Amino acid sequence: ALSFPAFGQVLAVPTFTVGSNDVVQSSIMVFRVAGTNETRVSVKFAFTDSGAKRLADFYHTHTIGEDVRWQCGGFVHPFKLDDRKSFGREGFWGLPETDAKTLEAGLRGQL
Predict the structure, then answer these.
(1) Can you tell me the distance from the alpha carbon of 38 to that of 44, in angstroms, rounded to the nearest whole number?
(2) Per residue in 54-84, pLDDT tens?
């Protein structure tokens, strides 16, 4: 009998984990826009110098188009890596209220 152990393996998705010490706390801004069905929320913030460097290192370690994810507390955002040039500011637009609250809590270290 042949064994195919590779079929049972799950490849880990590279994850950039953001902690509250990676974010300039006074830069966190939350904007709510009421829509026809539900309120959509945007969360914007700036990285500390060390947080921006960590993000830049993450981007340079991986390949453009690669499936990666962003994690901050319980907030997880999968995406394909793009050809990003700037790493100081970040934002997530049009989030459902629950996702925005989870992201904001993670950014503030209120896990």
Answers:
(1) 20
(2) 999 999 999 999 999 999 999 999 999 999 8
